[in-house]
Design goal:
Layout lengths: L3 E7 L19 H11 L6 E4 L3 H14 L3 E3 L21 H9 L12 H13 L5 E5 L1 H12 L3 H4 L9 E7 L5 E8 L1
Parallel strand pairs: 1-4, 2-3, 2-4
Antiparallel strand pairs: 1-5, 5-6
GO cellular component, one term: cytoplasm
GO molecular function, one term: phosphatase activity
Pfam families: His_Phos_1
Length: about 190
């Protein structure tokens, strides 16, 4: 059974901080791009994919230039949509509603926002389209959704992973009817 390595790189620090950034499309800082370049210098991959949001695409473009590659923008790797809360700080959102969301983001999606199951469905489809060693520049929510899809982790387990800006989560995946996967590295 032939497998492949999937490296997930969380974008670097965004220009807007302390906010719920889902569909909000803000720039990535120069320091954030540099951190992503540093984190990926030793990674081996044949394909480069990125969320189309600027805070991810900026790092992907820099990585592509360094490696003489092209970037494939794939909207399935974007962050979860926080709906009416998008772009707000958590202090600006009703605390009880926010708590219900963090505990069960499928049953308590933000008003006008995306359900957790919608995110995991699109991430599963994106993973199914990968067949070679790939680096994906993405977001914390998409990385956690990948862990849920591949390993069946619940919300409590997903929040046990520290995924700071510019962190890399590396996975070995063996596709097939009974897809198997293994976590092979996490570099914050």
């Amino acid at each position: 059974m032939t497998g492949f390595t999937l490296h997930l790189l969380r974008h670097g620090a965004p220009a807007l901080t302390g906010r719920m950034l889902g569909r909000t499309d803000c720039a990535e800082t120069a320091e954030g791009v540099a951190a992503c370049l540093d984190q990926t210098e030793e990674l081996d991959f044949a394909r480069l994919v990125s969320s189309p949001l600027r805070r991810a695409a900026a790092a992907a473009d820099a990585i592509a230039r360094r490696g003489g590659m092209t970037v494939t923008l794939d909207p399935r790797w974007r962050e979860i949509d926080f709906g009416d809360w998008d772009g707000l700080s958590s202090a600006d959102v009703d605390g009880d509603a926010l708590g219900r969301f963090w505990n069960d983001p499928d049953m308590h999606a933000p008003p006008g926002g995306e359900r957790w199951s919608t995110l995991t469905t699109r991430i599963a489809a994106a993973i199914d389209d990968i067949h070679e060693d790939t680096l994906v520049v993405t977001h914390g929510g998409a990385m956690r959704a990948t862990l849920a899809v591949l390993f069946g982790f619940g919300q409590a387990q997903l929040w046990a992973f520290d995924l700071p800006y510019a962190s890399v989560l590396s996975l070995r995946i063996w596709p097939g009817t009974l897809r198997q996967a293994q976590i092979i590295g996490l570099w914050p």
